[in-house]
Amino acid sequence: MKELKSTIENAFEDKISIQKAKTAILKVISELDQGKLRVASKEQGQWVTHQWVKKAILLYFKLQKMSPIKAGDLQFFDKIPLKKWNAKDGVRVVPHALVRKGAFVERGSILMPSYVNIGAFVGSSTMVDTWATVGSCAQIGARVHLSGGVGIGGVLEPLQASPVIIEDDVFVGSRCIVVEGAVIEEGAVLGAGVVITASTKIIDVSSSKERIYTGRVPPRSVVIPGTRPKDFPAGQFQVPCALIIGERSAGTDLKTSLNQTLRHFEVTV
Predict the structure, then answer these.
(1) What's the farthest any 2 CA atoms get from each other in the chain?
(2) How many CB atoms lie within 10 A of CB 212?
(3) CA-based R_g, the chain, Å
(4) How deeply is 65 buried, as exposed, middle or buried, from its count of CB atoms within 10 A (0-12, 13-18, 19+)?
(5) Fewer CB under 10 Å: which end of the chain, C or N?
(6) 3-state SS assignment for residue 134
(7) Where are the domains of the chain?
(8) Strands across the sheet containing 195-196
(9) For the structural domain made of 189-269, what CATH number should be given?
(10) Cα distances (angstroms) measured from residue 23 to each of 27, 38, 244
(11) Are the CB atoms for 242 and 223 separated by under 8 Å?
């Protein structure tokens, strides 16, 4: 792995030609495609972005040539081939679910008509629902539900930028948007229409004193869209925020816990 990383770094810095690094670049893409390598990993409780892996993806774009891609009667024209499926993958792929080569989807997951971009990772038993998108390098945990129309942002550049992280057992309601490297921690519930960016104020209003987060939603938080007043030269106006209104039960039956949470907090999904 050290040799692979060194080759990618040297090619990215033009110390060696991209053709000399071709084998290493294709090896990284293959490892990503099989889930053996990830753009980001959790180390000692913190998510770490591996910039050299993102560099390999960018080099892969330079290496690839535009060519026709056929899918039955449909034809596309692009640089990156689509992932091909068979029974041994253990993934249910509904037409027209598209996953680019270099992304990985674990066994037991279901892909409704949706899109998963290169460098992304989707954990086992996760549902990517209709017209949901998983952007480049996004990391989606196990037993996650991305509801219809959810937009999970992607990032390749700048290199130091962290990808969006959706941890295990998270429920993301319809039309939610999560971008700019935001982290949704384990077991959280986002109600329909919640927008989380790196700068979104995420305000815990579940107790007598508010607590404000940015860039991450704490574990098992139940979140709905909200607004807060902000002063501008033209006057005071309401700007979007996200409100933590409670906490999901840490029960062992996650499906029962989720259903109870949605009913208890009257969360629209």
Answers:
(1) 62
(2) 11
(3) 20
(4) exposed
(5) N
(6) strand
(7) 1-64+80-166, 189-269
(8) 98-99, 115-116, 133-134, 151-152, 177-178, 195-196
(9) 2.160.10.10
(10) 6, 18, 48
(11) yes
**pLDDT of 167 higher than 80:** yes
**Neighbour-count burial for 232-260, b at 16+ CB within 10 Å, e otherwise:** eeeeeeeeebbbbbbbbbeeeebeebbee
* pTM for the whole structure: 0.93
Closest CA to 58 of 181, 157, 179, 160: 157
Amino acid at 80: I
Q: Encode pLDDT of 248-264 as tens digits.
A: 877 656 666 677 777 77
Say how many C-beta atoms besides its own lie within 10 A of residue 118's C-beta.
Answer: 23
CATH of 1-64+80-166, one of 1.10.3080.10, 1.10.166.10, 3.30.70.20, 3.40.220.10: 1.10.166.10
Q: Is 183 helix (H, G, I), strand (E, B) or coil?
A: strand
Q: Which two tokens stand for residue 115?
A: 């899109």
Q: pLDDT at residue 72 above 90?
A: no
